[in-house]
Amino acid sequence: MDTLYRMGVVGAGLMGSGIAEVCARAGLDVLVAESGSDALTAGRRRIEQSLARGVRSGKLSDADREQALARVRLTTDLGEFADRDLVVEAVAETERVKVDVFAALDKVVEREDAILASNTSSIPIMKLGMATTRPEQVVGIHFFNPVPVLALVELVPSLLTGQRTRQRAEDFVTTVLGKQVIPSTDRAGFVVNALLIPYLLSAIRMLESGFASAADIDQGMVLGCAHPMGPLALADLIGLDTTHAIAESMYAEFTDRG
Question: Which of 10, 36, 63, 146 is the most buried (most CB within 10 A)?
Answer without folding.
Answer: 10
